[in-house]
Amino acid sequence: MQRLAISALTEYIGTALLVCVVVGSGIMGANLSRDAGVALLINALSTTLALALLILVLGPLSGAHFNPAVSLVQLATRNQSLRASLTYIVAQIAGAVTGAVLANLMFELPAVTFSAHERTGVGMMVGEVLATAGLIAVIGILVERNLANLIPVAVAAWIGSACFFTSSTSFANPAVTIGRMFSDTFAGIEPASVLPYIAAQLVGAGIGVLIVRAYSRAARLTSK
């Protein structure tokens, strides 16, 4: 019980800090430049660096999921119990909302302002599927290869890259998606766009699991 409580608190804090970085750097980027490309660069760079550091520092305490999609994959692959997974997910969502509120307050904005940033369209949904599938595949393949120590850098590299090559700017995280709804700023997402994004992320997570399984089979065949 104590171990799960520590892990849940870690997931809460880690997700809160991650969303605070995502939203805060988005606000800062928009304040520094009217060029959306420059703002996205600032947002992506800050997010990439923070994500790597958070996984590296907090990983030993909880596994550093900070993402319900990752926790659900751990449940589906029987690497985590239902109780632990649900506890993680609640902590992650609560942390994400807290992080958005902190970012708003840090820049002297109202604590909660629901975003009006519309993110819709088939292209964006495809982007979220791809971003999340890639994230799960990167994690799973590194674990299969006994290279889990590279996960902080690899995950950050994937997310940072996907911020630019996906049309959705790579949310790839249901909790972060929910949190970003509470800030009407550069990184925000309108409430109506949240469920489609999460649905796309869950589809992507499932595809990611299939990619890892296919990789595992191929690796076994080529090693014979």
Task: List strands and helices in order, with pairings.
Layout: H1 2-32, H2 36-62, H3 68-76, H4 82-106, H5 122-144, H6 151-165, H7 174-180, H8 191-222
Helix pairs in contact: 1-2, 1-4, 1-7, 2-6, 3-4, 4-7, 5-6, 5-8
How many structural domains?
A: 1
Class based on secondary structure composition and strand pairing: mainly alpha
The largest β sheet comes out as: none
What's the total helix number? Answer: 8
Q: Proportion of β residues?
A: under 5%
Structure, described:
The radius of gyration is 17 Å and the shape is globular. The chain has helices at 2-32, 36-62, 68-76, 82-106, 122-144, 151-165, 174-180, 191-222. It is mainly alpha-helical. Helix content is 75%, strand content 0%. Helix 1 runs antiparallel to helix 2, helix 1 runs parallel beside helix 4 (82-106) and helix 2 packs antiparallel against helix 6.
